[in-house]
Amino acid sequence: EPEVTQTPSHQVTQMGQEVILRCVPISNHLYFYWYRQILGQKVEFLVSFYNNEISEKSEIFDDQFSVERPDGSNFTLKIRSTKLEDSAMYFCASSGQFNSPLHFGNGTRLTVT
Amino acid sequence: KNEVEQSPQNLTAQEGEFITINCSYSVGISALHWLQQHPGGGIVSLFMLSSGKKKHGRLIATINIQEKHSSLHITASHPRDSAVYICAVRSQSGGGADGLTFGKGTHLIIQP
User: Do B88 and A43 touch (CB under 8 A)?
Assistant: First the structure.
């Protein structure tokens, strides 16, 4: 069964550094999402992406964050200058239609030191 | 903004017991998702529903739109069902409706 893949599984970075989290959604899916989960807290929506543009973003998704689908297969989340509070598990998800089940990747655990 | 509440927060049961996890939300939705998160962190979609009832194997999900409430049931529970079960909703369209709003999850432990 096709699946969403995320790399790396774990990323350690120093405060102020830029990180890029990578995701390969399911190939025929059209809707893409990033979510994050701070340790011990609930999952939070960051951004949705459709038709090569952001369709919605949460208040968490400030100017430090950006997303890109550079080549029709990868879907990346960039954090420009990481802060300690960016430490979390970041999940990529995709779906074939707007209101259809989401397929999640296994997540990237980002640790900012 | 939709508020999603789950109960119980923690549940420990014996193998074979019938399990019920509840979810309530505050604002009208277009869809409700039940998700399973294993200790390693990965999230798996169990159900997406907007009305009625769905069944998959030993899992049953129901939703009452009027009461803004959903339940997830597990019949003949097994230790491998131990996980965090998360309810998430997509609010009705009209701004802010793309992303899911998540509950805090129910941590389920099934003892042999």
Answer: yes
Q: What is the pLDDT along chain A (113 residues), one digit of tens a residue?
A: 779 999 999 999 999 999 999 999 999 999 999 999 999 999 999 999 998 899 999 999 999 999 999 887 899 999 999 999 999 999 999 999 888 889 999 999 999 99
Considering CB atoms only, which of A42, A45, A99 is closest to B30? A99
Structure tokens at A51: 């038709």
Asked whether the beta carbons of residue B48 and residue A100 sit closer than 8 angstroms, the reply is yes
Q: Residue A8, preceding bond cis, omega within 30 degrees?
A: yes
What CA–CA distance (Å, rounded) separates A108 from B41? 10
Contact A56 B96 (CB under 8 A): yes
The whole-angstrom distance between B14's CA and the closest CA on chain A is 25
Compute CA distances A102 → A36, A98, B75, B89, whole Å.
15, 9, 24, 12
CB B102 to CB A100 under 8 A?
no
DSSP string, A39-103: TTS--EEEEEEETTEEEEE-TT--TTEEEE--SSS-EEEEESS--GGG-EEEEEEEESSTTS--E
When scoring A33, A36, A45 by the number of chain B Cβ atoms within 10 A, the one with the most, hence best to mutate, is A45
